[in-house]
């Protein structure tokens, strides 16, 4: 949303420090609220010599509670972010694609450079959305299936399966910098400048110039 506001409404003032702290506080409260039921009903049990941590929902309507809880979690932390990302990036992509940058429009090299920059931006945003969707889907499917078939939690390698889907979901936060670094030249320059203390990374004067005087096409990509 911050990127959406910066590109679609570039002249509007950014969020103040107080507003940013309030938003961060709300995010933490929502996250705490979503995680609390699992913490509250969590139990440690021993099954065939293996120690497991399970969420024991109330016996009377436990399956109903469990299914309702996971549907709410999926809606808030998967479907809603996915919809917001898709809509925001779609509007950004359409806005940038239909916009023109001042310059010599008769110059074929300029026109080709501009089109290439827009294609890179759209490709980057599509990859970001797909990565988020793919990383989190197995995690949510795991719990939805568990709501209908509780016996899957008793399977021999279910702990390993859970850890695999959990780590895949958590890893979604590390892919965006990698995607930006692969597809964005200005991001790579910033990366080299930030880690130039490392012996294997060398920053050049060109990297500094790209950050101080970004070209028109680089502005479009960012």
UniProtKB/TrEMBL annotation:
An example of a Gene Ontology cellular component annotation for this protein is: sperm midpiece
Q: Which residues form the G-protein coupled receptors family 1 profile domain?
A: 1-180
Q: Where in the cell is it found?
A: Cell membrane
Q: Which organism is it from?
A: Mauremys mutica
Name the source's superkingdom: Eukaryota
BP-aspect Gene Ontology terms? positive regulation of flagellated sperm motility
What is the name attached to this protein's record?
A: Substance-K receptor
Tell me the InterPro entries matching this sequence.
Answer: GPCR_Rhodpsn, GPCR_Rhodpsn_7TM, Neurokn_rcpt, NK2_rcpt
- Keywords attached to this entry: Cell membrane, Disulfide bond, G-protein coupled receptor, Glycoprotein, Lipoprotein, Membrane, Palmitate, Receptor, Transducer, Transmembrane, Transmembrane helix
Where would you find the membrane-spanning parts of this chain?
21-41, 67-100, 121-141, 161-183
User: Matching Pfam families, A to Z?
Assistant: 7tm_1
Check the record and name the Gene3D superfamilies matching this protein.
Rhodopsin 7-helix transmembrane proteins
Give the membrane topology, semicolon-separated if more than one: Multi-pass membrane protein
This entry's Gene Ontology molecular function terms read: substance K receptor activity
Keyword Disulfide bond in annotation: yes
